[in-house]
Write a structure and sequence with these properties.
Helices cover 52% and strands 17% of the residues. The chain is α+β, with helices and mostly antiparallel strands and 223 residues long.
C-alpha cells in the first residue's frame, strides 16, 4: 500500500489530535500533578532530613560545649576559692575617721573571742566597698592571714561575736556567695552554713553539700 502525502498529513493530524486529547485529559493531568508532587515531596523530605541531622549534630555540639564550660567554670571557681582560703570578711564594724583598722580588730579578737594575733599573722587588712555602703552600712573588712590555721581558729570562735553587731564570714567567690544567698532564701539561714569555702544545707533532715542551684529544693508558697 502506497501512502500519499495527503495520507501522511492526515495521519499526522490524527496523531496530533490524539496527543492533545491525552494531554488535556483529566486523568493525565492528575497523574502528572501526582508525579510532580511526589518529586517535590521527596526533595522536601531529603532536605528536611538533612536539616534535622544538622540540628541534631549542632545540639550535640552545644551540649558538649556546655559540659566543658561548666567543668571549666567549676575548676576556675575551685582555684579562686582556694586562693581565698586564708581570708575572712568582717561585717558591721563602724568606720572611724583616721582609724587604725588592724588595732581595732585586734582588740575585738582579744576581748570578745579570746584570740590573740599580731601584725605578723596578717598579710592584708583593709575595707572593701560593697552595696552596703549605699544604705548606711559600713564597708566590710577583708583580712588575709599568713597561716590558714589562724583563720580556722577565728572562724571557730566567731559565735562569741553574737550581740556585738559585728559578724565574721568566710570569703566566698561570687558564684558561691550567690549560691549561698539562694540557699538561705529557700532553706532559711539556720539551715545553711559554710565550711572551708563549701556550702552545706540541711535538706530532708540531712546535711548535704550544695554545689549548684539544682541541689537546692525550691520552697513552694501556699496557693
Amino acid at each position: 500500500m502506497v501512502l500519499l502525502r495527503g495520507d501522511l498529513d492526515e495521519i499526522r493530524k490524527n496523531v496530533s489530535e490524539q496527543i492533545q486529547l491525552t494531554v488535556l485529559s483529566e486523568e493525565f493531568q492528575n497523574k502528572l500533578i501526582e508525579s510532580l508532587l511526589m518529586k517535590i515531596e521527596k526533595k522536601f523530605d531529603d532536605r528536611y532530613k538533612k536539616i534535622e541531622d544538622n540540628v541534631r549534630n549542632l545540639n550535640a555540639e552545644v551540649e558538649s560545649l556546655r559540659y566543658e564550660n561548666n567543668n571549666l567554670r567549676r575548676s576556675l571557681d575551685a582555684q579562686e576559692q582556694y586562693c581565698r582560703n586564708r581570708n575572712i570578711r568582717i561585717f558591721g564594724l563602724k568606720q572611724e575617721k583616721d582609724e587604725n583598722l588592724f588595732s581595732r580588730i585586734q582588740k575585738i579578737f582579744i576581748e570578745k573571742m579570746n584570740v590573740e594575733i599580731n601584725s605578723f599573722d596578717v598579710e592584708i587588712c583593709h575595707r572593701v566597698s560593697s552595696k552596703g555602703d549605699k544604705d548606711g552600712r559600713p564597708p566590710a573588712v577583708l583580712m588575709q592571714f599568713r597561716n590558714v590555721n589562724t583563720r580556722l581558729c577565728l572562724l571557730k570562735q566567731r559565735r562569741l561575736l553574737k550581740n556585738t553587731g559585728v559578724t565574721m564570714k568566710e570569703d566566698l567567690t561570687q558564684f558561691r556567695l550567690r549560691l549561698y544567698k539562694v540557699a538561705v532564701k529557700e532553706l532559711g539561714g539556720k539551715n545553711v552554713w559554710c565550711l572551708n569555702g563549701n556550702i552545706y544545707g540541711r535538706i530532708d533532715g540531712h546535711s548535704r553539700r550544695i554545689e549548684k542551684e539544682g541541689d537546692i529544693p525550691i520552697s513552694v508558697g501556699d496557693s
